[in-house]
Automatic annotation (TrEMBL):
PANTHER family: 3-OXOACYL-(ACYL-CARRIER-PROTEIN) REDUCTASE, 3-OXOACYL-[ACYL-CARRIER-PROTEIN] REDUCTASE FABG
Top-rank taxon: Bacteria
Family named by the database record: Belongs to the short-chain dehydrogenases/reductases (SDR) family.
Signal peptide start and end residues: none
GO molecular function: 3-hydroxybutyrate dehydrogenase activity
Protein name: 3-hydroxybutyrate dehydrogenase
InterPro entries found in the cross-reference section: 3-OHbutyrate_DH, KR_dom, NAD(P)-bd_dom_sf, Sc_DH/Rdtase_CS, SDR, SDR_fam
Originating species: Uliginosibacterium flavum
Keywords: Oxidoreductase
SUPFAM superfamilies (UniProt xref): NAD(P)-binding Rossmann-fold domains
Ketoreductase domain segment(s): 5-191
Enzyme Commission code: 1.1.1.30
Length: 260
């Protein structure tokens, strides 16, 4: 379905991004995998995907908090693949803290990675997409793009921001064959969620079991974590021609959380 397309997936060395990258590769796209982590393990990961699906897969370890590294990543991907057709802005981090003691550097990191990085990647790939008259931009939002939770002020601000950014870009690109949408997952059990359990225990004075039951899954009417594959399959649909008229919208995959 995506043969001949080139995709860049940020934050694809773990969790949701990795599932998205694998799903796009399985569908025939060449993929640039951006993300942090142990370089040798990430190279092995890329080689495995390339071998399994017969596509080109390359690793880019740009730290997306730094606009200069984003520019270098896009330049490198363009030189290697001849352009990016599918941009998945997925990389994200979380920090849980009361606002009055929220570390300023954490605030800046979350805004830089979860929001501003998508601005930079988008502004850099849009000219290529316009030239081709085709493109897909999918930004990883969250249930927290639509509603808030306490102690997550930076994350909620960034995730609300990405929804607004996506809508604006969708309008600008609507007549160029380029769609821009936000996918808004509920709780998906990835390292990002696993890491915030201890912080939430500390912030709210709860046990681990209480955090999972009373904080995380309390919000999700299905009482089940969303799987990374469910998110990846929705991203794949948004990349398809069947989704060519879906733009500027946000797709909630949250077990009914935000409908309450
Ligand atoms: P994860 O921690 O499993 O993966 C995060 C990825 O981002 C990793 O590949 C990591 O290397 C990369 N990354 C971190 N800092 C980076 C940096 N400075 N530069 C480049 N890459 C960096 O997280 P996840 O749960 O898969 O989250 C992926 C996205 O989904 C995030 O935007 C997150 O906000 C969103 N999301 C997650 C959930 C959830 O429940 N897990 C729910 C809603 C939204």
């Amino acid at each position: 379905m995506l043969h001949g397309r080139n995709a860049l997936v940020t934050g694809a060395t773990s969790g949701i991004g990795l599932a998205v990258a694998e799903t796009l590769a399985r569908s025939g796209a060449n993929v640039v995998i951006n993300g942090l982590g142990e370089p040798a393990a990430n190279q092995t990961l890329c080689a495995g995907l390339a071998r399994r699906y017969g596509v080109r897969v390359s690793l880019n370890a740009a730290d997306l908090r730094d606009p200069a590294q984003i520019e270098a990543m896009i330049a490198e991907a363009t030189a290697e693949f001849g352009g990016i057709d599918i941009l998945i802005n997925n990389a994200g981090i979380q920090h849980v803290s009361p606002v009055e003691s929220f570390p300023v550097d954490k605030w800046n990191d979350i805004l830089a990675l979860n929001l501003t990085a998508a601005f930079h990647t988008t502004r850099l790939v849009v000219p290529q997409m316009k030239d081709k008259g085709w493109g897909r931009i999918i930004n990883m939002g969250s249930a927290h793009s639509l509603i808030a939770s306490p102690f997550k002020s930076a994350y909620v601000a960034a995730k609300h921001g990405i929804n607004g950014f996506t809508k604006s870009v969708a309008l600008e690109l609507a007549q160029h064959g380029i769609t821009a949408n936000t996918v808004c997952p509920g709780y998906v059990l990835t390292p990002l969620v696993e890491k915030q359990i201890p912080d939430t225990m500390a912030a709210r004075g709860l046990t681990e079991e209480q955090v999972i039951r009373d904080v995380l899954l309390a919000a999700q009417p299905t009482k089940q974590f969303v799987s990374v594959q469910e998110i990846a399959d929705s991203v794949l649909f948004l990349c398809s021609d069947a989704a060519r008229s879906i733009t500027g919208t946000s797709l909630s995959i949250d077990g009914g959380w935000t409908t309450q």
